[in-house]
Amino acid sequence: MTLLDRTTDSTTTPAPLSAAAPAPRPADVEHWVSDLVDLLQPDAVQWVDGSTRERHDLLQLLVAAGTIEQLNPDLRPYSFLARSAESDVARLESRTFICTEHEADAGPTNNWREPTAMRAELDTVFRGAMKGRTMYVVPFAMGPIGSPMARYGVQVTDSPYVVVSIGTMTRMGDAALAPISAGASWVPAVHSVGAPLAHGEHDVAWPCNDTKYIVHYPETREIWSFGSAYGGNAILAKKAYALRIASVMARDEGWLAEHMLLIKVTPPSGRAYHLAAAFPSACGKTNMAMMTPSLPGWKVETIGDDIAWLWIGSDGRLRAINPEAGFFGVAPGTGVRTNPTAIDSLWGNTIFTNVARTDDGDVWWEGLTDQAPAHLTDWRGEEWTPDAGRPAAHPNSRFTVSARQCPSIAGDWDDPEGVVIDAIIFGGRRASNVPLVVEARDWDHGVFMGATIASEQTAAAEGTVGELRRDPFAMLPFAGYNMGDYFAHWLDFGRRLRRSARVPRVFQVNWFRKGADGSFLWPGFGENARVLEWMIGRLDGSLPASESPIGALPTRSNGINVDGLDLDEEALDELFRVDPAAFLAEADDVEQFFASFDDRLPGELDRQLELLRTRLRAAIG
């Protein structure tokens, strides 16, 4: 078999590990698996059923292999710590490829490779890649099974760590296989750590390969990943499927697959609002998704912390689901002070990766507590003390936990019909220029806001931390096709919304603006509820706004509620200061960014840029 051939008839397959009768298996999935056996040459094949017993067995297998260690059950019941290889700690954007027939269809923001050439290249690394290992066949569902938006996939992997992670992040096993058996379409996903074992060869605790590929074929809806066992590179249901492949499905089918959190906000009035918000990784998504509001009588409930699928429902309203079933959150910076809800979610049944271990068998990372323990074992397994001069936990260390454990999970978080979206929020990490909150004039202006979002680089991906980069819609690493076409799809989606129902308001926020001394001007975290309060006041018509060249801002007299905050007038002014000259300079950068899309950039975005410049020049006088 080669990577070009997915339809060869079944041949001999190694016996499954378990003698239990498997769930009914669709013939097309069985044929695909059989073809992969020929290519990957595993020692055994196990069809994953998603049972609790199976998960327990896999976790014990990982403990025996040294991949994970069980934490103190009295402190962290049925929880585990994994330490990855030092070369396998983050998303590998430089090794992530979009393989479309025409390079222009991938666009300038993606790494493009010609499909036939890439298949031939992958054939050389995948052939025999699972020798000495078990190939796990993992059916999974994205979204609540039975939802009109549920989509399905089958991943094969030779990593038990990946299997248990998929089990947390998706609806996995026989429950997902049943709709596929009934005829639901499915996305094939192939993953190998790329570390075949010769007979009698001793395995390592974290098998991976220095050569890595995360490859997507949008036109045939396929994913192939080699060499990494880390999160988004290996849990292919997550970024690879739910964003890169799903964004193409969404374009073709008329919906949106977005890097967005979903929350339900209920003010003291009792009327609930649902908001979707796009932030780059490690820029506060999980903190906002699990916010504990500082305002009395306000309630924020969690629907999703990372990915949202949005569509126009049969009632004509914009609806959304969280296609995931768990949280794969960044640990550093998550603490009792910053995100007590997340900490409460991690009481047990959690897999931690690349955090530090305490001497009594619990976990620790920077930001969990204000003061570090006197002694730890760091993420590399080395002795650590506060004077070590290095972080105890990797900056991109993670926790993987079921969404059902979140104390703030909304009762409608897995409603098959989704929730009605009242507003969309875009945000990034900006030390200057961008105000705390601004409201778009209309949907098209909101698309322009989303298309021009810039954020300072974080540790969640390769690159120089702190460097500013354009990250439109927080989808720069995740749009599976030409982003110029992606912008056009958003604009077209808005036209469809205008024909059917009320168009949601669009806002932009920036929690990270700094003063002259380099400190943050806004306290953030639970105080961000004050910004939500203003947004909802705009939605219900109870709060006015002040027009500015970049959009509508809170008024000084009746804007953001700052009662009780230690925030002086100078800091408040700086939070909302709009410097027309600085924005004109940034408009030049936006023009250069837009130019990279050539004729694929929608004319409406050029028009929005010129309107912005006109307003800025008028403000300068």
Tell me the fraction of residues in β-strands, as a range.
15-25%
CATH architecture of the largest domain: Alpha-Beta Complex
Mean pLDDT: 93
Quaternary state, please?
single chain
**Protein structure class:** alpha+beta
N-end to C-end Cα span: 69 Å
- The Rg value, from CA coordinates, equals 24 Å
Q: How many helices does DSSP assign?
A: 16
Low-confidence stretches: 4-19
For the secondary structure, the number of strands is: 32
Name of the top-level CATH class of the largest domain = Alpha Beta
Task: Estimate nothing, just give the exact number of structural domains.
Answer: 3
Q: What's a concise summary of this model?
A:
This protein is an alpha+beta fold and about 625 residues long. It folds into three domains: about 25-65 and about 95-255, Phosphoenolpyruvate Carboxykinase, domain 1 (3-Layer(aba) Sandwich), CATH 3.40.449; about 255-325 and about 410-620, Phosphoenolpyruvate Carboxykinase, domain 3 (Alpha-Beta Complex), CATH 3.90.228.20; about 325-405, Beta Complex (Phosphoenolpyruvate Carboxykinase, domain 2), CATH 2.170.8. The longest helix has 18 residues, at about 485-500.
